[in-house]
Specification:
The chain has about 325 residues and is mainly alpha-helical. About 75% of the residues lie in helices and about 5% in strands. The N and C termini lie far apart (about 80 Å).
Length: about 325
């Protein structure tokens, strides 16, 4: 039990590296990553919103994933970039709570969304004639609302019980944003209940979602193997390839970071792994989906052509 308890009004985020000479390099790297994530996901969101060729549930969920990725990276990277520019690593008590709340909310919703996207692919491949009827717009919107509510309740619970704990003079968070476990390690009070809740939520949102996703893909692969033509099999697999890639990257990083006993925690390693699902995966999502998805590439060409044509028509005659 820690002693000398005092009210903490701000925290110090140590960041990915404690070497000041690396901060300029890290600023450039993460600025580029943030811009790529922002532009890439905005393009995907724009395409799925305005192109009629992507007017399917699969692309509705893809657009939602891009929106979550924009919010997720915006919850962590801008504060990190600001700290590199200002040389101030402090974050206020309530700003830290807000950052943790929004990040935990977004990560929880994204885990659930990836599971829903796997089920969507199963319906599309296993029941193609009923796909549009089953995965109708009303269902998609209702599912979105449910995912947001579940994620909100999970995040609100963690945030409330984390920030009701007393904190000691040591206010240095060994991470690059306000994450739950590094905060619990600073707490002066008993964190046993927090750790039980944390582990339970991660088992449900991490392991259970991963299991349900795997079950969906067992049925998907079983259905694909029944397709007689090689071209049909190739096309069916291609519609799932991007999602499988993201699932392995995302679930792998999340499970490695959270589904472990506290005794095996290594914050230095966890910071690197956390960067995978908090920074790099949201950046790679639009790249993977655009490079491996023929419909997205064709939609990009159509929208670009329309924009160029509109610009030419609007240009004043010389």
């Amino acid at each position: 039990m820690k002693t000398n308890v005092s009210f903490v009004s701000e925290f110090v985020i140590l960041g990915l590296s404690t070497h000041p000479e690396l901060e300029t390099l890290l600023f450039i790297i993460f600025l580029i990553i943030y811009l790529v994530a922002l532009i890439g996901n905005l393009i995907i969101l724009l395409l799925t919103s305005i192109d009629p060729g992507l007017n399917f549930p699969m692309y509705y969920f893809l657009g939602l994933l891009s929106f979550l990725d924009i919010c997720c990276t915006s919850a962590t990277i801008p504060k990190m970039l600001t700290s590199y520019v200002s040389r101030s690593k402090t974050i206020s008590y309530y700003e830290c709570a807000a950052q943790m709340f929004f990040f935990t909310w977004l990560v929880g919703v994204e885990l659930l969304l990836l599971t829903v996207m796997a089920y969507d692919r199963y319906i599309a491949i296993g029941k193609p004639l009923r796909y549009v009827t089953i995965m109708n717009r009303r269902l998609c919107i209702n599912v979105t609302v449910v995912l947001l509510i579940i994620g909100f309740l999970n995040s609100m619970t963690h945030t409330y019980f984390t920030f009701r704990l007393p904190y000691c003079d040591d206010n240095k968070i060994n991470h690059f944003f306000c994450e739950i476990m590094p905060l619990l390690m600073l707490a002066c009070g008993d964190t046993y209940l927090n750790e039980i809740m944390f582990f339970t939520a991660d088992v449900i949102l991490g392991m259970a979602c991963c299991l349900l996703t795997c079950i969906s893909y067992v049925f998907i692969i079983s259905t694909i193997m029944k397709i007689r033509s090689a071209e049909g099999k190739r096309k069916a697999f291609s519609t799932c390839a991007s999602h499988i890639t993201i699932v392995f990257m995302y679930y792998g990083a999340v499970i490695f970071t959270y589904i472990r006993p506290r005794s095996s925690l290594s914050l230095e390693k966890d910071k690197i792994v956390s960067a995978l699902y908090a920074v790099f995966t949201p950046t790679l999502n639009p790249i993977i989906y655009s490079l491996r998805n023929k419909e997205v590439k064709e939609a990009f060409k159509r929208v670009t052509k329309r924009l160029v044509s509109h610009s030419v028509q609007q240009a004043p005659a010389m």
